[in-house]
Design a protein that fits this description.
Layout (H helix, E strand, L loop, with lengths): L12 H12 L16 H16 L3 E4 L5 E5 L9 E5 L13 H17 L2 E2 L3 E5 L13 H6 L5 H6 L8 H7 L15 E7 L4 H4 L4 E7 L1 E10 L3 E2 L11 H18 L5 E10 L5 E2 L2 E10 L2 H22 L2 E10 L2 E2 L2 H14 L3 E6 L4 H5 L5 E6 L15 H19 L1 E2 L1
Parallel strand pairs: 3-5, 3-6, 6-16, 7-15
Antiparallel strand pairs: 1-2, 2-5, 4-17, 7-14, 7-16, 8-12, 8-13, 9-11, 10-12
Helix pairs in contact: 1-3, 1-12, 3-12, 8-9, 10-12
Bound molecules: zinc ion.
Length: about 425
């Protein structure tokens, strides 16, 4: 008979916090955060610590050929697929102590609490540490989960190079974490990821839990505008072919398009190259990337089409050449409504304030969602700050999200009396 977990069941928030602080000692940053980039010696050390903790809880740790770690707590039904809880232990070069780490160690704390309480579940529970989520050392981000979900081939992943020219495959071997499992062969009953929000909404609204319903899709559209280099003083206004002016009109237009698709759409430009980039020369060439994101596939496609059409019109009027190349893309992800509902119900039952939220950043869960019912839980972070050594959360926030994770996982893994 399946029993619902009682609302008085909680994880051990102090123990979770101690694990977070212990892990943060490995690969310290220069300003109180962490530099535990993927496939460095510090990453290897962090992996060993995590493995030791998992084995102390009676879990078996499997490793796949991408170095992703899977720590399994068995279930009672040998035919039942596992419930996965995953995130990442790697960090940015100037990363925080919680981005990713909270989800992996939060998962381990769920298992520790199950062990404390002698809870048995029908489905196994597997805590996962995905390799190279950050993509800071080896682009792209979410590399191992991408191979797992069939988005990238393992050969592509192994050939990725860091800025020093070292290959991912060689570095994985060097730190001793090439496992024997084929990547992506595991089947999942469900996938949960607990992560810091990396944005300001939950804290600003004083909410303890973010119930993540979607992950935004994105297009990166790289524009190359061609004008005519000319002297800024001696070229009359009516004789200019001004690629810079076309660029500024396109920026304005991108803003208009994004504003007309509210709520739930963003668009902007973060990078521009002016050529020759001289004070007294009108640019002959301007290259910039428009970044548009929204959780709606329909909006995403419409925004791209509108931006490309209107940019062509703007450039034509000014006599400026315009070409566009799509240099980055993710489809929007809709998380599994049943799992999302369980997260919401768990927050409700435990008396935690919550709101539905959309993930603005990419996560391993976005790839896992391609191969399993998946969802995420967000924890607030101070000032919305992340990918920054000053990234911070409170012990109470960390524990509240782990409590919700615990209950949602138990509902899904099914308690056995
Ligand atoms: Zn992360």
């Amino acid at each position: 008979m399946v029993a619902a977990p009682g609302e008085n069941l909680r994880v051990n928030g102090d123990r979770l916090w101690d694990m977070l602080m212990e892990m943060a000692k490995i690969g310290p940053g220069i300003a109180g955060g962490n530099n535990r980039q993927t496939l460095t010696d510090a990453d290897g050390e962090g992996r060993h610590l995590f493995k030791t903790w998992c084995e102390a809880e009676g879990m078996t740790v499997g490793v796949d050929k991408m170095g992703t770690m899977f720590a399994t707590r068995p279930g009672t039904d040998p035919d039942a697929l596992p419930v996965y809880i995953g995130s990442h232990l790697d960090t940015q070069p100037t990363g925080g102590k919680f981005d990713g780490v909270l989800g992996v160690l939060g998962g381990l704390e769920v298992v520790r609490t199950m062990n404390d309480l002698g809870i048995r579940t029908k489905h196994p529970v597997v805590v996962t540490n995905w390799t190279n989520e950050e993509g800071a050392r080896f682009a792209p981000a979410m590399l191992a989960s991408g191979v797992f979900a069939g988005v990238h081939s393992i050969d592509y992943a192994y050939a990725r190079k860091d800025p020093e020219g070292k290959a991912f495959g060689d570095e994985l071997k060097r730190i001793g974490w090439v496992g024997d499992e084929e990547v992506g062969t595991r089947k999942m009953h469900a996938y949960f990821e607990y992560h810091i929000e990396q944005g300001p909404i939950l804290e600003a609204e004083d909410k303890q839990i973010g119930v993540v319903t979607h992950c935004q899709g994105l297009w990166w559209l790289e524009f190359t505008l061609t004008g005519r280099e000319a002297h800024t003083g001696s070229t009359p206004m009516n004789m200019r072919v001004n690629a810079g002016l076309a660029m500024s009109r396109i920026f304005e237009m991108v803003q208009e398009v994004a504003m007309s698709e509210q709520p739930g759409a963003v668009g902007g430009v973060g990078q521009v190259f002016f050529s020759p980039n001289s004070r007294n020369v009108l640019p002959g060439k301007v290259v910039f990337t428009v970044d548009i994101r929204t959780p709606s596939q329909e909006k995403l496609d419409r925004m791209r089409a509108r931006i490309e059409t209107r940019a062509a019109e703007i450039c034509e009027k000014l006599g400026v050449g315009c070409s566009v190349e799509a240099v980055g893309h993710f489809d929007p992800v809709t998380f599994d409504p049943v799992l999302v509902g369980r997260v919401r119900e768990a927050a409700e039952k435990l008396g935690y304030s919550h709101r539905d939220i959309i993930s603005g950043a990419g996560h391993d869960a976005c790839w896992a969602a391609k191969v399993a019912p998946a969802t995420m839980i967000f924890c607030p972070c101070v000032g919305g700050l992340s990918h920054n050594e000053a990234e911070d959360i409170s012990k109470e926030w960390a524990a509240a999200g782990a409590d919700v994770l615990f209950h949602a996982v138990l509902e899904t893994a099914e308690i056995v009396e």
